[in-house]
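Deviation from plan, reported transparently: iron/sulfur cluster complex.
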Amino acid sequence: MGYIKGHDRYQTTLFPETIDDYITENNQVRVIDVFIDSLNVVALGFTHAIPCNLGRPAYDPKDLLKLYLYGFLNRIRSSRRLEHEAIRNIEVIWLLKKLRPDFKTIADFRKDNKKALTKVFRDFTKLCDEWDLLGKELVAIDGSKYRAVNSRRNNFSKKKLDRHIQYINEKIEKYMDDLDAGDEAEKGDRKPDAEEIHKRIQELKARKEKYTGFKQQLEDSGQNEISTTDPDARLMCNNNNNVDVSYNVQTTVDGRHKLIADFKVTTKPNDLGELDNMALRVKKMYGKTFTVLADKGYYKATDLKRCVENGLTTYVTKQIFSNGTGDRDFYLDRFQYDKEKNVYLCPAGKELHYSKPRKSKGKVIGYDYNNFQACSNCTFKERCTKSKKGRVVCRHVDQDFLDQIDIQTEEHFETYKLRQMIVEHPFGTIKRGWGAYYFLTKGKNSVSAEIALAYLSYNFKRVLNILGAEEMIRRLKVRGELALV
Ligand code: SF4
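Because the crystal trials were delayed, the predicted structure below was used instead.
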């Protein structure tokens, strides 16, 4: 017995075949096609949404949007690769009806429709709501770092610039000495002559000028760092404790089906200060209150208070502060507060008494407690503090409120544990599964559009898995018919 044989490449087909024959009934491209066709691209603000009667006809924005959505769902993000797929991939050939836009047209579409792409994400979230796929009871908020188009070499802080400039100054000085002495500049095998040394000095001076310019820019802008390829990107620590020039994308995920409800691209290296902002945006969208889950990165009294004041229930793990010596037995959480006596009981059993308010920028931020006399005779002093006088413990000005949040989170820890499952699902799918852990575009607005496409694709895929292709097509068609009424 031989193998299963393919068709003869040179056989002329006897009966006409259609491209549609190659696309199964429940293929995702059919859903993409119906979904994008149902969009009102004029209302969404896409360029060329209304065809122009003059000049060469443009591509329909719906066709290019279909191509991008298909690409993201299949790990194809770059415009050059999408161009290629339009030629060789039967699904894309079906989807675009054999249109073959070049990479520039594809890239320009994304560049020219930044806001509109974000609106498509929001429109699909609205659709999920209409289809009752958002639970609106429980949401998890977290930030994730996506690498920017900017290498670490092209990111400069004042310290780094000073280091470079100092190195150049030393190098120039050394070359000058070599020139004066008429001696060789380097002790290697090769001996640069005076002409070459002059050339090198000029190069170093040019570099120095560039770095001095960056330093001036830093001073003028009041920023801490400068990124030369993507000026909006910032140096951040990622989950693996590596440092990369990135964006921090704040994401709110609904608990029922792990659908992304909202997102915001930030240039802040941490999540502190984003909880109330993100939670209240979703509250406005949902039109009701809900429970918010977030990790200790969001533990900030003012943000938590604002959430509570707006009727939201927050389960957020507390931030435990180190004592400076790094000994866990003497971290702040090992000090017990006695409310009646207004004292802290330290791990050695000594009472720390109130001493004075602690201020920052003229504002009281907490109250200091200490007992230097007890500390001076304590055998644990080396483990407890680096201060010669003794340990000082600061009670936050809103500590009573924070204690309530801690008790509430502790009591509902089973619910809190869902946080990771909910919020890590999209991050795992997009970053690990689809390999989209880095941006291809530059600038905050562009990366916002890029992440909107990624999140739209993620939600689209989730809904496809939940409802199935046929049901999704049916619902989309009903929506389209209702829109026409
Ligand atoms: S050093 Fe002071 S605060 Fe620390 S354990 Fe000893 S007595 Fe308590």
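The pocket of iron/sulfur cluster is lined by residues 346-348, 350, 374-375, 378, 380-381, 384-385, 390-391 (CB under 6 Å). We consider this an acceptable substitute for the interim report.
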